[in-house]
Amino acid sequence: MASLETSMGESLSVRLLANSRRFIRWVTTPHVLLSLIMLVILYYMVVIPLYRMVNTTLTWQPRDVTNVPGAVLGEFTFYHYVRMLTGALGQIYMFTPLRHSFTVAIGSTLLSLLIGGSLAWLVIRTDMPGRKLVNQLALIPYIMPSWTLAQAWLVFFKSTSFSGGTPGLYEFLVGQAPPSWLSYGPVPIIICSALHYYTFFFLFVSAALMSIDSSLEEAGDLMGASRWRILRKITLPLVVPAILSGFIMTFSKVLGTFGGPNILGTPVRYYVVATMIRGSMGVGDKADAFVLAIVLILFSVITIYINQRLIGTRKSYETIGGRGFMAQLSKLGKWKRVMLSAAITFQILVIVVPLGLLIWSSLMLQDGNYSLSNLSLQHWIGERGTIFN
């Protein structure tokens, strides 16, 4: 009997040892190990912060105890949601900034589509010279911080007629202040955001255009279809999934961006959700700021879900040729040099000019004086003397 029990114990030990070895081998498999690491990172970087945000919005905070009669620190409440979603405060803190955010996000996304899609078509589907250079330059704006374009815009278009103080470069050169709508508000925010985020559309549309077998377009041409009909019936349906992906990326990034709206919107009280979050945090209203952040997250999730549904119904795909196919390039003819010049000029305006304006501003001894005699290295090395006497 004792021998049987010993044998059963040894058999159980062997099975446990074998199972543990199999489990260790499974856990140490590269894809499983990487998945576990990513789950841990997701838990600490997303789940815990999101839980704390939600918990803060559903409990009385120290600031509420001093301002709201009957509030008990840490007790459950819907006070912050009612405060931010209803009444006059809801209009000021939530709905007006949310409307501004959607205005800026939609405008920037449409302008980004126009810029990025046009550049992608020129680089991938035309015989324009210098396409490799244009392709490389198109990636640089996204590498730059988003606030650089907004700050450079303000350096150029700052208006003393509205904000007072020192003039911008435009007013210094022309002698007349630019209109306030060009200096601050939704128009400059939309333009600067689009110039920063159009890279998404450029990359997605370029990849889609590269995957299209030109034999489909050639077949349409042989059947007598016009270029516009070929574009509408053949090319565009194949590119739509890429456009939707670019739309989601650009829209969600602009919806949550802070730098540009803070520089170009705050001076005229044109607040978006991101700047309202920063303002609420600045005065100690963490719960109100977290309500705004949660609403922003919900809209982002809804947008991504809609995108997945749309792409799911259209079934994103690419064409596959039986041979190594190349896209048929559109002949630009006499417009070759014109298109190249336009593309390069655009890139210079987006990359070189903003950086040049910021560098020039850092060398100015006195704000508002853009003459050579006002340039100094004081802000760089501490010497007050001017560079050009």
What is the name of the CATH architecture of one domain? Orthogonal Bundle
- The CATH superfamily label of one domain reads MetI-like
Can you give the mean pLDDT? 86
What is the overall silhouette?
globular
List low-confidence stretches.
Answer: none
Topology, number of strands: 0
Order of helices and strands: HHHHHHHHHHHHHHHHHHH
Structural class: mainly alpha
**Radius of gyration, whole Å:** 29 Å
The residue fraction in helices comes out at over 70%
Task: Walk me through what this model shows.
- With 389 residues, this protein is mostly helical.
- It has a domain of 266 residues: MetI-like (MetI-like fold), CATH 1.10.3720.10.
- It has 19 helices and no strands.
- Helix 4 packs across helix 17 and helix 5 packs across helix 14.
- The mean pLDDT is 86.
Summarize this entry quickly.
The protein is mainly α and about 400 residues long. About 75% of the residues lie in helices and about 0% in strands. The chain has a domain of about 270 residues: Orthogonal Bundle (MetI-like fold), CATH 1.10.3720.
Keywords for this entry:
389 residues, mainly alpha, MetI-like fold, 19 helices, 0% strand
Fold topology:
Elements: H1 2-27, H2 30-57, H3 62-67, H4 79-85, H5 87-125, H6 131-137, H7 140-143, H8 146-157, H9 160-163, H10 169-174, H11 180-183, H12 186-210, H13 214-222, H14 227-256, H15 259-264, H16 273-282, H17 286-314, H18 336-362, H19 378-381
Helix pairs in contact: 2-17, 4-5, 4-17, 5-6, 5-12, 5-14, 8-12, 8-18, 12-14, 13-14, 14-17, 16-17
